[in-house]
Automatic annotation (TrEMBL):
Residues 5-330 form the Amidohydrolase-related domain. It comes from the Bacteria. InterPro entries: ACMSD, Amidohydro-rel, Metal_Hydrolase. It is an enzyme of class 4 (lyase). This is 2-amino-3-carboxymuconate-6-semialdehyde decarboxylase.
Length: 331
């Protein structure tokens, strides 16, 4: 029997120890406003209002049942990555949130699959934390799409990705730490334009930076939000590679050669966008995701996938569960 799997959801624990020593004066903490609502604080600044569906498995499972979702991948909320701190500090922070994540999913281990976070700025520490987490029950890892000015083609990240492949651990890449400016600090523009651009850029790093040429093609890696703006601009990238390959990347082959090397989720909210995604990377490389429980996510989960008439029954079944089952090692 096939399962319906949501590859892209997040958690926030109900509370955690004081992180000032490791994260500095803007350390995150949770200001509880009621039994079911809280505010994520960054020092004295309000960051995001959340509800108890971030930490309450019972509510999460009820929403899954309502939307017809059998299994969720539950990943960290990227604001807690702390890639700007030392490796030692970020390793302690990662361990705290990884252990709390296991408590959140504990009530339903057959339906809630935890992905860990790692101190990606320190390759050795990241590999150690990944190994510890996999031994403790995490099934994959979520990473941010960059570390300051270092993208996914930096040597340390490539080493970490190779370690994920060696352990057969799936990797979910989520955009984070978007640029800020007066033009981007209104209308949630960082989320509406910055996130798609960040994901697009990091996909380029893997392709044009030659990472896919240097890594095992069995690496399991998935990008959030439909891969950002990548699919729409593949033609432009392809043209640039052919016309100015002297300056556009170090990849051995044109960008379209690598479309089978990564997956994306389906959080694109529009049938026309989903069609482009399927036409570009293939139905076997798209997995249903929702970005639950945040307001910019999709509810009901998989609504666009289910209503898209251009999908064949086999393609729809692959997107809503089959592809993710293989990605997670469940099939």
């Amino acid at each position: 029997m096939s399962h319906t799997i949501d590859i892209h959801t997040h958690h926030v624990p109900r509370g955690w120890p004081d992180l000032v020593a490791d994260a500095g004066p803007r350390a995150p903490w949770l200001r509880m406003e009621s039994e079911s609502a809280a505010m994520i604080m960054l020092g004295s600044r309000e960051f995001r209002r959340i509800q108890d569906n971030c930490w309450n498995a019972e509510i999460r499972l009820r929403d899954m049942d309502t939307d017809g979702v059998d299994i969720q991948v539950v990943s960290p909320t990227p604001v807690f990555f702390h890639y700007g701190r030392t490796g030692t500090e970020a390793a302690r922070i990662s361990r705290i949130f990884n252990e709390l994540a296991l408590r959140i999913v504990e009530p339903a281990p057959d339906r809630l699959i935890p992905f860990c976070q790692v101190p990606l700025q320190d390759t050795d520490a990241a590999c150690r934390e990944l190994e510890r987490c996999v031994a403790d029950g995490h099934r994959g890892v979520e990473i941010g799409n960059h570390i300051g000015d270092r993208d996914l083609d930096s040597a340390g990240v490539v080493t970490f990705l190779q370690h994920c492949r060696a352990l057969d651990v799936p990797v979910f890449v989520h955009p984070w730490d978007m640029p800020s400016s007066p033009r981007l600090n209104r209308w949630m523009a960082q989320w509406l334009t910055g996130m798609p651009a960040e994901t697009h850029l990091s996909l380029l790093a893997l392709i044009l930076g030659g990472v896919f040429d240097r890594t095992d093609d069995r690496l399991k890696i998935c990008f959030a939000h439909g891969g950002g703006s990548f699919a729409f601009w593949l033609g432009r990238i392809e043209n640039a590679w052919h016309q100015r390959h002297d300056v556009v990347g170090t990849s051995q082959f044109p960008p379209s050669h690598y479309l089978h090397r990564f997956s994306v989720d389906s959080v694109v909210f529009d049938e026309r966008a989903l069609r482009l995604l399927v036409d570009t990377v293939g139905a076997d490389r798209v997995m249903m995701g929702s970005d639950y429980p945040y307001p910019l996510g999709e509810r009901p989960v998989g609504a666009v996938v289910h209503k898209s008439e251009f999908l064949s029954p086999a393609q729809r079944a692959a997107i809503v569960g089959g592809n993710a089952a293989r990605f997670l090692g469940l099939a």
